[in-house]
Amino acid sequence: AIATDTPQPTVTMADTPTHIVSSTPTSILKSVTGADCIPNHPVQTGKVVDVVDGDTIKVQMDQDGRTYTIRYIGMDTPEYTSQVEYFGSEAAVENVRLVMGKTASLIKDVSETDRYGRLLRYVIVDGIFVNYELVARGFANTASFPPDIACIPAFQGAEQKAKTAALGLWNAPPAATPIPTVVPVTGGGGGGNAPCTCNGPDL
């Protein structure tokens, strides 16, 4: 997840890769769990050369050899850049394990880029639908940003199962109970205003 007030290196619409692989999701997504929701759009491919955090990567495209920042569609992981949230580092590490150095198949929904110029994509690596997998295993929550919502129902179902199983970020430790402030008792007199000598029964 990238904080909205921290602009990332942008790719302008003019820089968006236009030459795409002729294959379609039909051939790429067979037997890939959760991927039947992905729209039937052409597929781009490239090598993952950097993992920014749990939901953002950088890919060197096969089509033009240039590197683009890719933001996963439909989900969001805890922060691990400008700030660190619970399970943010674990999500980033898992993303590295799933995709780093591997060939990714990238498919868009409706939008080409977000407001930071990052390409918005569904990501398939080694037969795993990465967006879905991170949600299903409790590393991410569903995040709906219309019009890119084709897989939101699938992600919501995966998220509910992760919650029920208390996986990952859904197994967060309970919030710490505030410690009551102790106000020293001062002054003389009887009853509750008697001074404490901190000896014997008073201690």
Summarize this entry quickly:
The protein has 203 residues and is an alpha+beta fold. It contains four helices and eight strands.
Would you kindly provide a written description of the structure presented here, covering whatever features stand out?
This protein has 203 residues and is α+β, with helices and mostly antiparallel strands. 18% of the residues lie in helices and 19% in strands. The chain is built from 4 helices and 8 strands. Helix 3 runs parallel beside helix 4. The chain is globular, with a radius of gyration of 24 Å.
Largest sheet: 5 strands, mixed, barrel
- DSSP strand count: 8
| Unreliable residue runs | 1-14
Mean pLDDT, rounded to whole units?
Answer: 82
* Order of SSEs: HEEEEHEEEHEH
Gap between N and C termini: 51 Å
Strand order of the largest sheet: 1-2-3-6-5
Radius of gyration: 24 Å
* Shape verdict: globular
How does the helix and strand content classify structurally?
alpha+beta
Range of helix content = 10-25%
Number of helices: 4
Strand % is 15-25%
Defining key terms:
5-stranded mixed β-barrel, globular, two-stranded antiparallel ribbon, alpha+beta, disordered N terminus, 19% strand, 203 residues
List the helices and strands and how they pair.
Elements: H1 25-28, E1 44-51, E2 56-61, E3 67-72, E4 75-76, H2 88-99, E5 103-107, E6 119-125, E7 128-129, H3 130-136, E8 141-142, H4 152-164
Parallel strand pairs: 3-6
Antiparallel strand pairs: 1-2, 1-5, 2-3, 4-8, 5-6, 6-7
Helix pairs in contact: 3-4
